[in-house]
Each structure stands twice: as C-alpha cells, then as structure tokens.
Amino acid sequence: MQTNFSPLQLADPATAASEGVIRSCVHCGFCTATCPTYVLLGDERDSPRGRIYLIKEMLERQQTPTAEVVKHIDRCLSCLSCMTTCPSGVNYMHLVDHARAYIEKTYKRPLRERFLRSMLALVLPHPRRFRLALQFARLARPLSPLARALFGPPASAMLALAPSALPSSTPVEASPPVNPRGRIILQRGCAEPVLRPQIRNAAIRLLNRAGYEVVLSDDEGCCGALVHHLGREAESLTAARRNIDVWIREIETKGLTAIVVTASGCGTTLKDYGYMLRNDPSYAEKAARVSAIAMDISELLAKVDLPAGRAGGLIVAYHPACSLQHGQKIVDAPTRLLAAAGFQIRVPTESHLCCGSAGTYNLLQPEIAGQLRDRKMASIEALSPQVIATGNIGCMIQIGSRANVPVVHTVELLDWATGGPLPPAMAGQDFNRSTT
Ligand code: SF4
Ligand code: SF4
User: Fold this and answer.
1) What count of other Cβ atoms lies within 10 Å of the Cβ of residue 122?
2) Which of these, 135, 175, 224, 294, could form a disulfide with 236 (CB 3.0-4.6 Å)?
C-alpha cells in the first residue's frame, strides 16, 4: 500500500515501523475471508485490509481519529487470523497495537467508555482486585438491567460472565525430579489463577512428571497484555519491565531453561517483549532474552516424553485459541499431545475463527463476541464431544458460558491422563481413566 508520511513523521520509530507494515500490504484481500469481523459484518472497514487503510490515513494525517474510525479499530479482536492468511507477511499485530496506542493518546472516548476501560485496566491485571470484583459482580447480577441502562451492554456482559462461584486455590504439592532436565519458571498470570487455579496445579504436576524443576516467582506481575490491547502503552511497558527484571535475575543467578506460560494470550505478549522494548536502551537486550525463552506449555511438552497416557478414548473437541494458533503459530502440538495421551481429538470446522473472547473484547464488544461464541459453539456441538479443551483461560470462560459439556485446559487433561486428579470441571460425571 502506498504511503505518504513526511520525513519528520518517519523520524518517530513507531511510525516508521508502521509505515513498513502498511507498505508490505499488497491489497490482495485474502485476509478478508478469514477475518471474523468481516465474516460477520461484511463491511470492508471491519476487515484487515480496510483497517490497514484506516490506520494509514489516521497516522498520516496525525489528527484525532473520528468516532467512526475508532469504532472499526475497536471491533478488531486482535485475533491475528489475518496474519496467518496473509501471503505478504504483513505484521498486522504491530500495526494495530500502534493504532490502539495512538487512539488512546489522541481520542477522547465518551465518559462511560472511559470509565469502563479504566475499571478493566485497574482491576483485571491484579488478582486480589479481580477476585473482589467477581464477588461483587455475582451479588450485583440481579441489577444487570440497571447496570446496562447506566453503562451500556458491556456492564451487563461483565455481570453475566462472572462465574457464580470461584474455586478456592489449594497450592499443589510439587514433586521436583531428583535430576531435573531443566529449571523453568511457570508464569503466574493474573486472571487464570483466580478463575481456574487448578490449571497451574495441573501444569506443575505435569512439568514435574516431564522432569522439570518448576519455580514460581512472587515478584512477577501481569504480563501487560490486557492493558496493551486497551492501547495503554506506558502501563503495558511498565508491566513488561517489572517481569523482565524478575526473570533476568532468575536467569543470571540460577539459570532457566524456559519461561512457561499456560495462558496463550500472555504467551504471545511475552514473546513480543523484545519488540515492545526494542527502543529502550536499558531493556532492549534483556527483553529479547526473555522473549527468546518464553514458551507455551504445549510447546515445551511436545519436546519431551511424557509418561504413557491412559485417557480411555474420551472424545475431546479441541478449540485452538487464536493467540496460540495465530499469535504463536502453535498448531499441532496440543492435539498431538492429547492424542498421545489416549484422547480422541476432534477439531471443529472454522477452527481459525475466534470464539469472541479476545482479552477484554467479550466485555467491551459483547454483541459481536456473543455472535462469534454462538457460531463457535455450533461447530463444536456438531462434534458431540464429551469434553472441550483449549489452551487459554479467556476461551475457557467464553466457551464455557454456553457449553453443555465440561470445558478444561489442555494441561488438565494431560495431567489427568498421566496420573493426576480428574479436572474439577469433570467431577461428578462418569469419565473413566483406562486402567490398562
Ligand atoms: S486481528 Fe482478527 S479481527 Fe482484527 S483484522 Fe485481523 S483477522 Fe480481523
Ligand atoms: S492478505 Fe495481507 S497483503 Fe493481502 S490485503 Fe490482507 S493484509 Fe494486505
């Protein structure tokens, strides 16, 4: 795509990087067919190509964007399906991240939008605050019509998605191997340990069984993905720097094989730390080191021999999270691991399409997110699964809000099949692990 940036504009490294991305787009439009918002809405401005054009115009003019432009950028899920499809290697992720940060700096949103977005940024990355907010949301659910009248559809979506009970967190008894094959940090995350603490426990057992010593760091915080996708660039970089300091200390004092992530949305961001901090002389090199050893748990487990699985042929519909399949290009590892553990794996049609979760998207754009979830559920239900597995907490909550079978994390199934306890979501149902 042709651009018209001035030399002065291109002196800004972020604009120069975006110019490179825009110029790599050849208008072919292949990406439109796999973009969930274009598939649903059929508007070029809700397609990757249309958004690239809107972002180009916005950045070139260096003016405050109109509400119309912001609406179409906001409707993007950052699912990155377009990046998988694009034959020209357009890095849409970096472009839309820049656009969101630009909008955040230059555009004044209506008051209630500002309030909701600020609340999300203040609460979600902090597990204690998030837990309290969920307890409050549960009590406030009968007031959903009033919340909707005051704050719009996102407010009632927040109340509807809050779980009716929060699982208590019981720390797992780690069984570190005597001669570990490596030492890994298991990233703590922020939403996942509040909503499904059993995922971390299953991951620790599984990693120990695979021969790894697992370290949890008390000093790390949210990876910054949630605020990053809200365009709050300074906050996301602060979060990244804090974690980089903690992990570099671990690398330099005791050595680390990998930083392992169970929430694939966080994993995509960790792997992008090197790019996010490329212009910070104090952090660029350290950020690149952290990104180089960040791994999704399925990526690590695919490289080792797990004990033989005894899943007894349970039928599992595997939903590939966008952040895993498009963001990190991890496509086969989870299904290969599950199949090797004895599960029958079925992958829904349109598996490239987002379920509508997308970080805070299902809260801020509940109507589109609801349509995507229903479409996803129709393709999953057609498989008649006994269980649904996925590798990202956001997808678990989104799909779980409509599923009539248990929705679990991939590592919970792998842990169970290789000797761990039944995932809590499957409790009380007749799932027999094979004894052979
Ligand atoms: S990130 Fe997803 S929603 Fe956004 S333009 Fe690309 S395919 Fe469409
Ligand atoms: S597929 Fe790639 S090159 Fe083609 S229009 Fe979409 S972003 Fe541009």
Assistant:
1) 12
2) 224
- Condensed to tens digits (0 to 9), the pLDDT of residues 301-345 reads 999 978 777 778 999 999 999 999 999 999 999 999 999 999 999
CATH of domain 315-426: 3.40.50
Nearest residue by C-alpha to atom 7 in ligand 1: 35
3-state SS of the chain: helix, strand, coil percent to 5? 55, 5, 35
Q: Please give the distance, rounded to the nearest whole angstrom, from the Cα atom of residue 72 to the centre of ligand 1.
A: 11
Q: Which residues pair with 215 in a beta bridge?
A: 185
pLDDT > 90: percent of the chain: 83
The amino acid that residue 61 corresponds to is R
Rounded distance between C-alpha atoms, residue 415 and residue 213, angstroms: 16
Give the phi and the psi of residue 342 in degrees, each rounded to 5. Answer: 105, 10
CA distance 302 to 337: 7
Tokens matching residue 120: 């999300």
Query: What atom of ligand 2 comes closest to residue 26's alpha carbon?
Result: 3
For residue 47, the ligand 2 atom closest to its alpha carbon is 6
E runs forming strands in 124-271: 182-186, 212-215, 258-261
Q: Which two tokens stand for residue 392?
A: 């990202």
Task: State how far the Cα of 354 lies from the Cα of 375, in Å rounded to an integer.
Answer: 10
Residue 127: predicted pLDDT: 93
pTM above 0.90, yes or no: yes
Residues 6+ away with beta carbon under 8 Å from 191: 124, 127, 130, 226, 263, 393, 394
Q: Best mutation site among 21, 34, 75, 79 for ligand 1, i.e. most ligand atoms within 8 A of its Cβ?
A: 79
7-106 fold: Fumarate Reductase Iron-sulfur Protein; Chain B, domain 2 (1.10.1060)
Which residues of the chain carry a pLDDT beneath 50? 435-436
For Cα atoms 291, 296, 302, give the angle at the middle one, nearest 5 degrees. 120
**Residue extents of the structural domains in the chain:** 7-106, 111-161, 315-426
- Tell me if 259 sits within 8 A of 290, measured CB to CB: yes
Pairing outcome for strands 182-186 and 212-215: parallel
Residue nearest to atom 3 of ligand 2 (CA): 25
List, as one string, the DSSP characters of 242-284.
Answer: HHHHHHHHHHHHT--SEEEESSHHHHHHHTTHHHHTTT-TTTH
